[in-house]
Amino acid sequence: MPAHVTFHDHLPPHHAAEQLRLDAARGLTGRPKVLPPKWFYDKTGSELFERITTLPEYYPTRAEREILQARAAEIVAATGCRTLVELGSGSSEKTRLLLDALVAGAGGAPGYVALDVSEDALRGACHALAGDYPELAVTGVRADFENQLHTLPDAGPEGRGAGRLVVFLGGTIGNLDPGQRARFFRDLRGRLGPGDRFLLGADLVKSPDVLVPAYDDAAGVTAAFNHNVLDVLNNGLGADFRHEDFEHVALWDAEREWIEMRLRAVRDVLVGLPAIDLVVAFDAGEELRTEISAKFRRAGLERELGEAGLAPAGWWTDGGDRFSLSLWSPA
Ligand code: AVJ
């Protein structure tokens, strides 16, 4: 590892395997049956998601990139921050738009901190960025952003003084339900000093005629992405789910303003999960909820983040008003 990459591991070695057992045991024995969306992203699932981002129907990635291409320099300059802290080290391409602006800006030495549960994703992202930005101090933190924000280095590595810009991109905030979001925003607010800022990428409420196809594309890539979670259960828990026993469902919940993805049993199905000593029965037509992807309005975000002690400091959308980047400062 190059000298300017440091790495902190705050998770036990078998954390993922243990969490999968807990989430499957809890989610498959409850009613309705549910699984947290984080289990989509094994190697195959991550590749399928990358393909989703190139689909004609899936606009969020392109819309967010459009905003960053036009506004990254303005956003970074507005914060005065010299350290970028990314929650989830996924979309390195969009990160680079912000880093280009950070590195070009004036002030102290620039730093980048990535926080992710996946060691592979973290090491991959940190090495690639360290290679391409030799002047950047890069820190990888292996931790879960939902309950381990305290693991973030304080004022940036090596005593970097200016504030930190914490970014949470891609619309991943939509995977959290309102209670989880309230907890996350409060935790985050508690970690921010006066000079720190928070940049949030959030998909916006729009017509179901646009939203539903984005989660049920004509080429069937999202269906394959959804079905892949069954392979994650098969591989991780020795389960015997069969793709052909389940159909992909994407629906818009107009009241809660979120997309739900489900897997619906097309017949009565019995599945064994030997690793957790469980047999699960699905009645024909019964559904397993695999994801919520909430969509937002500006007023709703201002209320939610406001309740957590975060004040609006900037708002940008793409030309089609489909996606938002918003900046927040500690109130
Ligand atoms: C990566 C969580 C932002 O919710 O749009 C894509 C995941 N699910 N297609 C989203 C996803 C179905 C995506 N996020």
Topology (elements, then pairings):
Layout: E1 5-9, H1 15-29, E2 33-34, H2 43-52, H3 60-79, E3 83-87, H4 92-104, E4 111-116, H5 119-132, E5 137-142, E6 164-168, H6 178-191, E7 197-203, H7 208-214, H8 221-237, E8 246-253, E9 258-265, E10 269-273, E11 278-282, E12 287-294, H9 298-307, E13 310-317, E14 323-330
Parallel strand pairs: 1-5, 2-12, 3-4, 3-6, 4-5, 6-7
Antiparallel strand pairs: 7-14, 8-9, 9-12, 10-11, 13-14
Task: Give your account of this protein's structure.
- The protein is an alpha/beta fold and 331 residues long.
- Helix content is 36%, strand content 26%.
- The protein has helices at residues 15-29, 43-52, 60-79, 92-104, 119-132, 178-191, 208-214, 221-237, 298-307; strands spanning 5-9, 33-34, 83-87, 111-116, 137-142, 164-168, 197-203, 246-253, 258-265, 269-273, 278-282, 287-294, 310-317, 323-330.
- It has an eight-stranded mixed sheet, sandwiched between helices. A four-stranded mixed sheet has the order 2-12-9-8.
- Helix 2 (43-52) runs antiparallel to helix 8 and helix 3 (60-79) packs parallel to helix 4 (92-104).
- The protein starts with a strand and ends with a strand.
- The model is unreliable at 156-160 (pLDDT under 50).
- The structure holds N,N,N-trimethyl-histidine.
- The site of N,N,N-trimethyl-histidine (AVJ) has 11 residues, from strand 12.
Properties at a glance:
331 residues, alpha/beta, single chain, eight-stranded mixed beta sheet, binds N,N,N-trimethyl-histidine, 14 strands, four-stranded mixed beta sheet
